[in-house]
Amino acid sequence: MVSPEPTGGPTLPQVRRLVTEVPGPRSNELLARRAAAVARGVSTMLPVFVSHAGGGVLVDVDGNSLIDFGSGIAVVSVGNAADLVVEGVREQVGRFTHTCFMITPYEGYVAVCEELARLTPGDHEKRSALFNSGAEAVENAVKVARAHTRRQAVVVFDHAYHGRTNLTLALTAKNMPYKHSFGPFAPEVYRMPMAYPFRWPTGPENCGPEAAAEVITLIDKQVGAGNVACVLIEPIQGEGGFVVPGEGFLPRLAEYCRTNGIVFVADEIQTGFARTGAWFACEHEGVVPDLITTAKAIAGGLPLAAVTGRAEIMDSVHVGGLGGTYGGNPVACAAALGAIRTIEEQDLVGSARRIGDVMLPRLRALQKRHPVIGDVRGRGAMTAVELVVPGTKTPDPATTQAVAGACHAAGLVVLICGTFGNVLRFLPPLVIPDHLLDEGLGIVEQAFAQVAGGPQARGPVVAAQA
Ligand SMILES: Cc1ncc(COP(=O)(O)O)c(C=O)c1O
Predict the structure, then answer these.
(1) Residue 290 Cβ < 6 Å to ligand 1
(2) Which atom of ligand 1 is nearest to the CA of 268?
(3) How far is ligand 1, taken at its centre, from the CA of residue 269, in Å?
(4) β pairing state of 228-233 and 153-157
(5) pLDDT digits (tens), the chain, 466 positions
(6) Nearest CA to ligand 1 atom 3
(7) Ligand 1 pocket check: which of 42, 162, 232, 415 to mutate, most ligand atoms within 8 Å of Cβ?
(8) Dihedral sign, CA of 450, 452, 453, 456?
(9) CA-to-CA distance for 363 and 179, rounded, in angstroms?
(10) Backbone phi, then psi, for 449, in 5-degree steps?
(11) Are 422 and 397 in contact, with CB atoms under 8 Å apart?
C-alpha cells in the first residue's frame, strides 16, 4: 500500500529539522522555474518552497522543517491548516463555492459580520462589509468616511503601510519598493508625524502628548479639521517597523476626531484577531474607533477582509455603493468562523500575551549584550528589535539583513520591516509550542552572537540535522 501523504496542520511534527542546505535542491529547481514564469516584481524573502505547514513549523519540498516566526505576515495566527478552519472550508466547498453575496446571499457572510460586531471594540450598533484584501478594506473605509462626512481629506502618518493599490499607495509612506515608479497617486492625502518613541527628539516619555499636539496643530493649520473625512492609523504600525505609538497618542487623536466630526479609522489588518494579546490593539489604550479595517488573521489563511463600524457611518453609503464579485466569499467566511472559534476555544488572546511575556524579556536581555539593538518593542506576539549603529540612532539595515540571513540558514523564519529596513520582526503563530518558541529565540540569540559579535560569539549558528 502506498503510504498516505503526510498532512499539514496541527499534527505535523513540531520539530526543527534541516536535512539540506536552505534552500535545498528541490527548492532550487522550483526557483529556476519561478524565475522563468513569475514576474520579477513579486519578491521572495526566504526561497524555500513549502510543502506542508502547521502549528509552529513550515516543511519544505526538501524535507526541511523550519520554525515559523512569520505566520505568513501575521495571517495564520491560529496555525496553518488549523482544524476548525479546514473543517469549515471542506464543508462549505462541498456545498457551494460562490454565488456573489450581491446576487444571492448566504448565511456565512452575515455570521462573519455578526462576529465582527461582537468582537470589535465598542458596544454601539455596528455594520460590516466584506472584501478580499486588506488594501481593499482600507480603500472602502476611506470611501465610507468620505460619503459620511462629505469631506475629502485623509490624514495618515509617517511610516504607515496600508496596501499597494493606487489609493492605498498614496496612504502608504515608504517609497522603495512600494511606491517607486507607480505614481501619480490619489490626491487629498496628508501625512503627519508619527509618535515613534525610540526616535522622538525629546525622548520616549514625551512622545505621545507632544506628537498628538503637533499633529493636531498641523491638521488645524494645513488641512482644516472641517475638510478631514478621516484620520487613518495602525494602532501598532506593521510594515513601518512595529512602532507602538507613544502612550496617549491614540486616545488624544480619537478625542480630536470626535470633537471635529472626523471619522477615526483604526487599520487593524496586522494587529487584529488576538495578535497583540487583545482582540484588537486599540483596546490596549481603551480606544474605540469609528471604523476598523481587518484582514490577515481573520480567516486563518483564506483571503478575507472587512470594514466594521458605527451603523450610522457605515449606512451612510447608498445602496450598491459597496461590494465586489468575491468580497465575503463563502469559503473564506467559513474559514473565518473556524478561525474565530479557534481563537476563543484555545484562548489565543492569552497565548499571545504569554508569547510576549517570553519574548520581550529575552530580547531585552539580548539588547544588553548587543548594543546594535537600539530598541526592543511590541505587544503580545507582535515584537521586534530595531538595529542601529551602536551608540547612535543611525539605522543598520546591513546587520539586520545578516542576522535574518543567519536565522534563515538555521531554519528559523524571521521577517524584516521598517522604513529604514532595520527592524527584525517576530510574528509566531499563536499556537506555537513553548519548546519551538524557546528554540527559535535561541537561534535569534546565536545569530546576533555570530553576526554582531560580542561576548556571546560562539561561531556559526548550528543548524539542527535530522
Ligand atoms: C496595516 C496594514 N494595512 C493594510 C495592509 C494591506 O493588506 P493586503 O496585503 O491584504 O492588501 C497590510 C498588509 O501588510 C497591513 O499590514
Answers:
(1) no
(2) 1
(3) 6
(4) parallel
(5) 444 555 899 999 999 999 999 999 999 999 999 999 999 999 999 999 999 999 999 999 999 999 999 999 999 999 999 999 999 999 999 999 999 999 999 999 999 999 999 999 999 999 999 999 999 999 999 999 999 999 999 999 999 999 999 999 999 999 999 999 999 999 999 999 999 999 999 999 999 999 999 999 999 999 999 999 999 999 999 999 999 999 999 999 999 999 999 999 999 999 999 999 999 999 999 999 999 999 999 999 999 999 999 999 999 999 999 999 999 999 999 999 999 999 999 999 999 999 999 999 999 999 999 999 999 999 999 999 999 999 999 999 999 999 999 999 999 999 999 999 999 999 999 999 999 999 999 999 999 999 988 644 444 454 433 3
(6) 162
(7) 162
(8) negative
(9) 32
(10) -60, -40
(11) yes
Is any atom of ligand 1 closer than 6 Å to the C-beta of 135? yes
The atom number, within ligand 1, closest to the CA of 296 reads 10
CA of 140 to the centre of ligand 1 (A): 13
Contact between 228 and 188 (Cβ < 8 Å):
no
Q: 269 burial class (0-12, 13-18, 19+ CB within 10 angstroms)?
A: buried
- Residues near 354 by Cβ (< 8 Å), separated by ≥ 6? none
Atom of ligand 1 nearest to the CA of 237: 1
CA of 154 to the centre of ligand 1 (A): 17
Q: Is the CB of 295 under 6 A from ligand 1?
A: yes
Beta strands in 83-145 (DSSP E): 126-131
How far, in Å, is the centroid of ligand 1 from the Cα of 15?
Answer: 30
Q: Which ranges in 286-410 belong to alpha helices (H)? A: 311-314, 330-345, 348-369, 397-409
Indicate whether residue 138 lines ligand 1 (CB < 6 A).
Answer: yes
Indicate the top mutation candidate among 236, 268, 269 to test ligand 1's pocket, ranked by most ligand atoms within 8 A of CB. Answer: 269
Quickly tell me which residue has 535574518 as its cell.
404
Q: Is any ligand 1 atom within 6 A of the Cβ of residue 161? A: yes
Cα–Cα distances (Å) from 301 to 99, 149, 193, 202, 296, in that order, read 21, 34, 33, 41, 7
- CB of 272 shorter than 6 A to ligand 1: no
Please say whether the beta carbons of 426 and 434 come within 8 A: no
